[in-house]
Design brief:
The chain is of the alpha/beta class. It has 17 helices and seven strands. A hairpin with a 2-residue loop joins strand 6 and strand 7. Helix 1 packs antiparallel against helix 2 and helix 6 packs antiparallel against helix 7. The mean pLDDT is 87.
Length: 383
Amino acid sequence: MNKFYEIHAQLSACLQERNQIFPQRDEENDRKVQEGLDSFVDYIDQSLEKKFVIDPQLISKVRAVRQQPVFLCGAMKSGTTLLLELLDGHPELITLPGDSFFIGRIQKEKPPSHENLNEAWRGWVKRMVNPTGQAPFWIFGEQVEPYVYFYQALQHWYDQMPDTWRSSVLSVVLAYFCANPSRPLSPKLWVEKTPGNEFKVKEILDDFPSARFIHIVRDPRENLASLKRLYATRNWSWQPAGIADMLARSCRAAAMNQKELGHERYHVLRYEDLTDDPAGHMKRIGGFLGVGWHETMLGPTVNGLSAHANSMYKERQVTGAVRKSPQNKWRTVLTGPEQRMALNTRNSTGELGYSWEITTKDTLLLPLDMIWDKIKRTLRLAG
């Protein structure tokens, strides 16, 4: 046990160092964090019990929710993390922490096996220590037993189901519930979020026919500006044209998916509306999901622990609170050509209520076809 506390102390120090410089990353710190997480999982590997039994009461609870998923959709930096963390503490929801990337990993051509799932399982154990890349950490607490339980429950649940990629998803959901000391009391649904789920709705429904979806969208101008800051802090290759196109496609997918599935299966929410009126919109989401209102829906948490906002703006990195969405930051962050790319997404956002006016200053940024459209609209209004 002393070895665990040694690993815990060293890894915690590295994680706190990472948290202080967020959203920036440091290569040396990243290396130390990964080494610490690997040491932690190796320790868990050596601590597994030969006889493993799950409480029968927990089994009956998870069986009732395994067919009832909720998938959160939306582009990166559109508010998906905030939405997930507002749902996190609800006593009727099993809310997986962070981005799962489930659907992108599902392979239809062959069933998974313990061998090719083992690395994914190790990754999920690490996720319970460092779910979002910033505080809170160690979401199962300061004792080693829940992490050991989680690792064994992953394998246990997968062994109880057919050898399919769907089972690999469910094994994580069920293990997370069973091992979690802060598990919800009366689970009805489980919640997963990964940016881009909106483009995989058909694949999701193939495996989870009863799935419901919540798609959060954001003004593409502000979304592009936030992504630009993220890419800069991580030294990622910045391709604004492609990213602006992705934001436009995500907005179009929101309207199209809702039309195809109906409002009772596909709920669309604007980030600006959520931050303006968290209580009102979270109550609507509770109604959409068929769960009761709960006060935890007003404060972002990760497994019940107050969450630190992952905003790209330091002044907005608050803990356990929702801050109103800023307006017009995009004008100070985006270059002229980037502003033009953002403005070009306007035709994809009309059905979502983003019908911003184009100013004279904006007109100088627009291509000729959009300028001609503006002139024709002006002439029609004048005549």
